[in-house]
Amino acid sequence: MKKELLFMGPPASGKGTQTNRLSKEMGLPHIDTGSLLRAAIKNETESGLIAKSYIDKGQLVPLEIVAKVIKERLMEADCQKGFILDGFPRSLEQAVALDEIRKEIDAKSDVDFKVINFEIPEGILLERIVNRVSCPKCGEIYNKKFTPPKQDGICDKCGAELTQRKDDTEEVAKSRFETYHRETEPLVKFYNERKELIALDAEGSSDEIYQRIKEIV
Ligand code: AMP
């Protein structure tokens, strides 16, 4: 059966870290709209140029752009057995767009679809964001304060130089939290009513949270 997992939660709630690990273990692609959009910016595509101004302000990139990027990605061959979506959908209109995309791509498959909602007190998240660094090569995520790499600024896994995201500043992060409450939180009710939402206690060590996720999936 095709497996489609959707990870939802506020910025820096651990979705990326957990998805990276689960995606490797399950052999399912990790599809993260933030990274797809950052790649489009780096490649200076038309979508990337538009996306940049929204990302820099911590606002949602318009639906037409995100839906196009995500649809193209979900139609690639490696998504036929399933995928883990991280950071999409983030608004009701995006959830409706995802339903439409899934109607097309899942027409011939039986699907196990689950939405996992990372529940975590917001107080600790801002500190996580401003200390976050990641590996541009393999995607590994570190925190300079809580989970630093062995050698300062260097990825433990592949030796590449770690970078900090431009939108991981206190000012932009505050705007991202506002956007999350206004646009994304209503999706909890949306998927709950459809009995597709599973609440995840996302507080604790990374290993503990991973085990909880494994029990769900
Ligand atoms: P993230 O890497 O998930 O923290 O996303 C970084 C930024 O990319 C967000 O603050 C948004 O500006 C943009 N972004 C990521 N995913 C979406 C989405 N599903 N819809 C609109 N904008 C998005």
Rg, please? 17 Å
Question: How much strand?
Answer: 15-25%
What is the CATH fold-level name of the domain at 2-29 and 76-121 and 172-216?
Answer: Rossmann fold
The largest beta-sheet arranges its strands as 2-3-1-4-7
Specify the oligomeric state: single chain
> What's the tally of helices?
9
CATH class of the domain at 2-29 and 76-121 and 172-216: Alpha Beta
The total beta strand count reads: 7
Q: Determine the CATH superfamily of the domain at 2-29 and 76-121 and 172-216.
A: P-loop containing nucleotide triphosphate hydrolases
Bound molecules: adenosine monophosphate
Please identify, by name, the CATH architecture of the domain at 2-29 and 76-121 and 172-216: 3-Layer(aba) Sandwich
Structural class based on helices, strands and sheet pairing: alpha/beta
Task: Give a description of the structure.
The radius of gyration is 17 Å and the shape is globular. The protein has a 5-stranded parallel sheet, with helices on both faces. A two-stranded antiparallel ribbon has the order 5-6. It has a domain at 2-29 and 76-121 and 172-216: 3-Layer(aba) Sandwich (Rossmann fold). The protein is an alpha/beta fold and 217 residues long. Helices cover 46% and strands 16% of the residues. The structure holds adenosine monophosphate. Adenosine monophosphate is lined by residues 11, 33-34, 37, 54-55, 58-61, 66, 87-88, 90, 94, 167, 176.
Features:
Rossmann fold; 9 helices; about 15% strand; 7 strands; alpha/beta
Describe the SSE topology:
Elements (H helix, E strand, L loop, with lengths): L1 E7 L6 H12 L3 E3 H10 L3 H12 L5 H12 L7 E5 L5 H14 L5 E9 L5 H6 L1 E3 L6 E3 L26 H15 L1 H8 L3 E5 L4 H11 L1
Parallel strand pairs: 1-3, 1-4, 2-3, 4-7
Antiparallel strand pairs: 5-6
This protein binds adenosine monophosphate (AMP).
The site of adenosine monophosphate has 17 residues, from α2 and α3.
